[in-house]
Amino acid sequence: MMFTAVAVPVPPSLYPVQPARPIERSFAFGPFVLKPGRQLLLNQGVPARIGGRAFDLLTALVERPGEIVSKRELLARAWPETFVGEGNLKVNIASLRRVLDEAVEAPRYIATVTGRGYRFIADVRC
């Protein structure tokens, strides 16, 4: 027995539906735009060089502007399932402050809450 393939047109209503693209979150503050889904920080439209851990810390802080984010929460966010000391957190916060061109003595973006954690203090536009 022999079969012949025949092309049958498929009506447009039966084409697979493309899933909707997820909405890309972005956070703007000062001259910066943070795009967590793309692992991107822009400074006046130009990509800024930022390490992965510092990026995770910035995202955690920017998602909760004005709130104290504890050291424990930040460590869990940047180093999931890994035990690291607070020294790693301090080093990465310092790196983040350099990227944001910020001094500890005159914070514009990240305030240290002694003994507790950090707070993002700039206005954030979503």
UniProtKB/TrEMBL annotation:
Keyword annotations: DNA-binding
InterPro entries to which the protein is assigned, alphabetical: OmpR/PhoB-type_DNA-bd, Sig_transdc_resp-reg_C-effctor, WH-like_DNA-bd_sf
SUPFAM superfamilies named among the record's database cross-references: C-terminal effector domain of the bipartite response regulators (SSF46894)
Domain OmpR/PhoB-type span(s) in chain numbering: 24-122
DNA-binding region coordinates: 24-122
GO molecular function annotation: DNA binding
Pfam family, one: Trans_reg_C
Species in which this protein is naturally found: Sphingomonas hengshuiensis
Protein name: OmpR/PhoB-type domain-containing protein
One GO BP annotation of this record: regulation of DNA-templated transcription
